[in-house]
Prior knowledge:
This protein is of the alpha+beta class.
Amino acid sequence: MTSPLTEQELMSRRTWFREHWDRGIPFAVLLGLQIEQWEPERVTIRMPLREDLTAHEGIFHGGAVGTLIDTAGTGVVIAGHDFNHGSRIATVSMTVNYVGTAPGEDAVAVGRCVRRGRRLSFAQVEVTSASSNRLLAHAMLTLSVAGERQGIPTG
């Protein structure tokens, strides 16, 4: 068994993951995702509406919204995670209900961690339109954090 991480090591990992979510996930960068809030209990991410992310004029493609949901859900779990239990996160399952559209508006996802475990955690995400605050989708995610991710600070 390895010794517990020091507070400095934990802070270093939290900082690394926050920066990674902001600039280190190429697909999220491609979609233009912008972190607005990053806290252990709440992560908020905006996706600006662009024509290349639409299915119909002015309406996001469901796959783009699904990526936004996955990014917010994994983000909120890792933002409050105890890195003594690993650092490699993966989505185990994601159930999405698409419930509305808001033509011409950015989408904002708010992720909340509803339960943290040693290996499995659960997140809830709601996506609303940025201006009119219409509910666009809601989702539940099961996430696994196990093993060590390569490339993160070790000391």
